[in-house]
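User: Here's a chain of 421 residues. Predict its fold as tokens.
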Amino acid sequence: MELEEKNEQESDCKFQKGVISGVIGSMAVIAAAFLIFTVGMGGRIAFQEDDTGAGAVSILDESVLGKINELIGYIKLYFYDDVDQEQLANGLYSGLMEGLDDKYTQYYTAQEYQDLQISATQNYCGIGAQLSQDKDTMQVAITHVYEGSPAEAAGLKDGDVLVMVEQIESVSMELSDLVTHIRGEEGSSVHLQIYRSGEPEYLELDVKRAHIDLPTIEHRMLDAQIGYIQILEFGEPTVAQFEEAVKQLAAEGMQAMILDVRDNPGGMITAVTGILDDILPEGTVVYTQDKNGTRQDYTSDGETKMEYPLAVLINGNSASASEILAGAIRDFEYGTLIGTKTFGKGVVQTIISLPEGDAIKLTTAKYFTPKGENIHGTGIEPDLELKFSYQGETEDGYDELKDNQVLKAMEVLNKELAAEE
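Assistant: Prediction complete.
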């Protein structure tokens, strides 16, 4: 697909703001929608056959071991280059997870798991840009450049397409691997080749790496009464950042709130349920259920429920934890959903750390909205369906007040405020 065609197809999304496909830029989060728990393991688990003897947990019977050794033999005899034994072993572990045929299940090497932990804390050494990768073409786009970041200083812009990182073609690997080449020692530089629409040639930029603390919340007052909060991702610091944003907006006179989770891929269940605890009255905000039928409820205690009229902006890239938020607001009848149907991810992953520093991510449960709906594969429909259309000039940068979905939310909230008077 040509770059120009891809950019035209992406024009339906919110104007280059937020995370499009679930990847937080040059810090790395897995390239998909996600909702995660984290479980630490103190040691190895010993598995045994069940009582029937027909269902051994281990698949490494004599036939399988023989096949593996046969393949290794052919590799040793005929493979044209040196073989990295550790890389081969990691390939076996990854292949085992892939055998589950679940796109959300994954094996992480120790380095990949370390990258994931950095992502969860939003604290890393890199360039300060959000990236997304098209799942079909593998093209990598910059979706947001943070203010005051090395990326901004080097001249990177929202909408730029990343062609090369040093000598690596960006389409040659998964984004979670590519970002390990973007990050590096503080003060060092990374060379990037960039495609920018309207430029006759690729841009060559050297970006100095720096210590970055990424915000997951952006906020502002849109007029004298309506506050706007965009949640970029549900990470470790998100609840505290959300509460601080609400406090600041309230001090500026906020009487109604727009919550924007468009292009938000999800994140930690504790983050979204913490925010819902701040917003909603007492009750279950989401619950999970595993294959044994074991249910776990996440609740709001109702002590800090908000009395503001509320609108929530959603789109097809609002996934997982974003859908938990939208589903709870809808089921509690606590706000108006505006935009387009959400992604449709209603399953939960658990990250299990292993003794050698590596980890696995397994899909372990389904989640359900307060009224018992599992939205996996179906998504959540908005109360007011409105396709995104930006009303300004894209060259001037994004402005919420030129976003038709934001303007519709303001219209709805202003009517609610007028009705209360």
